[in-house]
Amino acid sequence: MAEPLIRMVNIRKSYGRVQALVDANFHVAEREIVGLLGDNGAGKSTLIKVLSGAVPLTSGEIYIRGKRVELKSTGDAIKHGIETIYQDSALVTQLSIARNLFLGREPLKGPRFLNRMDHETMNSVAAELLREVGITKNIPPTTPIGSLSGGERQAVAIARAMHFDSDLIILDEPTNNLGVAETQGVLSFVRNARDSGHSCIFIAHNIHHVFQVVDRIVVMRRGKVVADDIDPKKSTVEAVERVITGMSEHEIKAAVS
pLDDT per position in the chain (257 positions), as tens? Predict the structure, then answer.
């Protein structure tokens, strides 16, 4: 078996006496879309925050392509090819599409000491990226993010992750508060990410959305991974819901086999 892209081993995260993660084991293969499911408080958001460098783990190990790494900040995660797209997209509404795509990584022109941003390059790349992620409307890259719809903002966030060659794109509830057309657009973007060679972790309360795009489903409960090899092609939404709400190990095996 090939070494997975991401492997998290015996991850623990404590907040005082509260155990948010208890010996959680999790992995993502190359070019794989993994659905991460669980009720509120199951630990999935904490697991993602650990992987994205937003919170430090209490104990455990994280490996990227077989090499152990320490992710002490979101900057560390980005350097290792991990980009996280949250429900609110983490975009600056007052800035343009192009500026948001390159935020903190703007190309410069002329002598570097002048620190002059190359707006022409940013606008040109942004226009191409918008087409790649499926935005068919002719939206100028100079358009402020604040004037875009929710789905269009998510498209910009995904485009940013794809442009900077992220190996793993984490999508945390990307379809919340979106209309039907925008939701289908986001789901299409996820499929495109896989086709472009990226891996994804897809977190959503809507199990039907997960079933449409993922290769494998992982379920967490009370800080633990209780099922990590559910094939959406061989299982059902009802069976996965039963795993989420609480079943014995024997029942879980029966439900996902």
Answer: 678 999 999 999 999 889 999 999 999 999 999 999 999 889 999 999 999 999 999 999 999 999 999 999 988 998 999 988 876 556 888 899 999 888 877 878 877 666 788 888 888 988 888 777 667 678 889 999 888 887 788 778 877 777 777 899 998 887 777 777 778 877 887 887 788 888 999 998 889 999 999 999 999 999 999 999 999 999 999 999 999 987 655 555 665 55
CATH T-level assignment (fold) for domain 6-93+167-256? Rossmann fold (3.40.50)
Torsion over CA: 177, 181, 187, 193 (sign): negative
Please choose, from the candidates 124, 122, 87, 125, the residue with its C-alpha nearest in 3D space to the C-alpha of residue 104. Answer: 122
pTM recorded for the entire structure: 0.81
List the domain boundaries for the chain: 6-93+167-256
